[in-house]
Amino acid sequence: MTTMATPTQPAPTKPSAPPVYNPKSESTTAKRIKSTIFHIVALGLVAMVLYPAIWMISASFKPNSEIGGANNALWSNNFSFDNFVTAMEGIGGVSTLTFFTNSLILAVGAVVGTVLSASISAYAFARINFPGRGLFFGMMIATLLLPFHVVIIPQYIVFQQLGLVDTYVPLLIGKFLAADAFFVFLMVQFMRGLPAELDEAARIDGAGHVRIFGSIMLPLMKPALISTSIFSFIWSWNDFLGPLLYLNTPEKYPLPLALRLFVDQTQSSDYGAMIAMSVLALLPVLVFFLVFQRYIVEGVSTQGLKG
Fold first, then answer.
1. d(CA 92, CA 277)
2. Separation between Cα atoms, residue 47 and residue 100, nearest integer Å
3. pTM of the predicted model as reported, rounded to 2 decimal places
4. Minimal CA–CA distance to 165: which of 157, 153, 174, 176?
5. Which residues touch 6 (CB under 8 Å, ≥6 apart)?
């Protein structure tokens, strides 16, 4: 007698659990989208800011016929170094090296004068108690509100009567007399953030103001000094109005005035050589800034600007 096999019943399956909502996943996706949009917008703004510099560099390799003409392409097929060769030859019988040397003399002189005079004046305001210190400091800060154009004519009359026109003295004497109130204020605020116990300990050891300033303050003021040097160098290197007022001899012109010589409204202007010289003039400032730029944040940090 045969037995019939009974069919096996399939095991009951468990119902699948519904998907669990994970708010963290949605939050992460939203953050990624916002980050992507932010980077796209940032890159667009960077491109807008850098476009003039990129155009200037590309135009320095173009012939004059393609600068400002119908061909507005960013890059030219007629790539050439002729503009740089013309720029290095100089203009008006004066070599470009002379213009560079003049700018370097003014910029280095401005840095040395500003650092020395501003640091000494700042030490007096920050560490020495003398009658009328607050009044004099307030008057110095008030000069920041006085536009430079207001004192142009009186200053020019004074220097003309002293026979100092067409010299570098009017452009540098103010640097050695702490005439830049911004740098004095910067260093005063930085010194006020330094512990006063350092001065007291030095006085106990018999140190005077000269020793305290030279051995204690200056080493600690390195960020402020470098920030002052950077800004002073850039402002002096790019100064156009001051040399235009006081210099009459082309052999004494700095680069900003030399660039103006390439533009002549009565004859053909060599814009290509002018742009090429602009690129060359930009290099020292760019190198100087890149080497010392990390000190700018330290020099104007909240510690240095607190009252």
1. 15
2. 30
3. 0.77
4. 157
5. none
Q: What pLDDT tens digit does each residue of the chain (307 aa) get?
A: 445 555 555 555 555 555 555 555 557 777 888 888 999 999 999 888 888 888 888 888 887 777 766 566 677 777 778 888 888 887 878 888 899 999 999 999 999 999 999 999 999 998 888 898 889 999 988 888 888 888 899 999 999 999 999 999 999 999 999 888 899 998 998 888 888 888 888 888 888 888 888 888 888 888 888 888 888 998 999 899 999 999 999 899 999 888 887 776 445 667 778 888 888 888 888 887 777 777 666 555 544 444 4
Exposure on the CB side of residue 18, measured as CA atoms within 13 A: 1
**Helix orientation angle between 271-292 and 222-237, rounded to the nearest 10 degrees:** 180
